[in-house]
Amino acid sequence: MRFVPKKESKKEPLLRKDDFSSYLEEKAREMAPRDVEALLAQAEKARESAYSLSDRIGNQMSLAIELLTDHHNGECPQIPYYTISLLAEAVYYFLDPNDVIPDWIPEIGRLDDALVVELAFERGVDGVRRYCAWKGIDDSAIYPPVPLRPAAAAIADEPAPKTAKKVAKKKSTSAKSKSKAKPKAAKKKAKKAAKSPRRATAKRKSKRS
Fold first, then answer.
1. Across residues 7-31, what is the average pLDDT?
2. Domain range for 50
3. Who has the most CB within 10 Å: 47, 70, 77, 85?
4. Quick one: residue 159, left, alpha or beta (phi over 0 = left, psi -120 to 50 = alpha)?
5. Do 130 and 179 fall within a single domain?
6. pLDDT confidence of residue 57
7. Does residue 182 register a pLDDT over 70?
8. CA 84, CA 87: separation in Å to the nearest integer?
9. What was the pLDDT predicted at 167?
10. Would you say residue 195 lies in a domain?
11. pLDDT digit string (tens) for 38-58?
C-alpha cells in the first residue's frame, strides 16, 4: 500500500475577535450608572497605563474618560447609553489585571486590553462621533481616515473608460438623429395640410356639377 501523508489541519485560534466583541456586548448590557461613577475614581491610572501601550490607545482612553465624566455630570444627555456602557466596560476590562489574557504574561498580556478598547470605539462610533462634534474635538486620532487601496486610487485618477465614451457617443448620435427627424416630420404634416383643402374643394365642385 502506498503511504499517503495526512494533511495538517489548520489550528484555529482559541480566542477570536468575535469572542471579545460578544463578551464586550454582554458585559455592557449589565453596566449601571453607579458603575460608571466608581470607574472614574481610577481614571488617571487607566489613562497612564493606556499611553504606556501606544499613543492611539492613550488617545482613545483619554476620550473615553472625558466622555464618561461629562455623562456622569449630566453634561451630554444626547449621547446614547449604549456608547456609554461600551466605553465604561472597555475601561473596566483594561484595568482588570486578571482578565481573559492576564496582564502579567509577557508581550501578549496587554493585547486583549487594547483590542477591547478598539472594539468599544468601533461599536460605539455613532455616539463617540456625536460627542466629538458637540465638544469640537478632532476625532482623526481616534478614527483615522481609511486610505484608498492602490487599485481604487488608480481608478480615481484614470480617465473615463472606453465603454463610457461609446455610450456617450451613442447618446449624442441618437440626439442628433432625433433633431433631424423632427423637421422631416413637420414638413410631411405641412404637405398633408396643404393637400387636404384642395381635395375638399374638388369634391364640392364635383357635387355641384
1. 80
2. 17-144
3. 85
4. beta
5. no
6. 94
7. no
8. 5
9. 47
10. yes
11. 999 999 999 999 999 999 999
Residues contacting 86, CB < 8 A, separation 6+: 24, 25, 28, 120, 123, 124
Residue 154 domain flag: no
Residue 186 and residue 139 in one domain: no
Coil, helix or strand at residue 146:
coil
The span from the first CA to the last CA of the chain, in angstroms, equals 117
Residues 36 and 115 in one domain: yes
Q: Estimate the crossing angle of helix 81-95 against helix 17-29, to 10 degrees.
A: 110
Alpha helices in 31-161 (DSSP H): 33-39, 43-53, 55-72, 81-95, 111-123, 125-135, 150-157
Is 179 in the same domain as 90? Answer: no
What's the longest Cα–Cα distance across the chain?
124
Q: Which residues contact 135 (CB under 8 A, 6 or more apart)?
A: 66, 70
Q: Which of 6-15, 19-28, 46-55 has the lowest mean pLDDT?
A: 6-15
Tell whether 12 is covered by a domain. Answer: no
Is the model's pTM score more than 0.70? no
Say how many domains are in the chain. 2
Residues 59 and 115 both lie in one domain:
yes
* 182 plus 138 within the same structural domain: no
Dihedral class, residue 136 (left if φ above 0, else alpha if ψ from -120 to 50, else beta): left
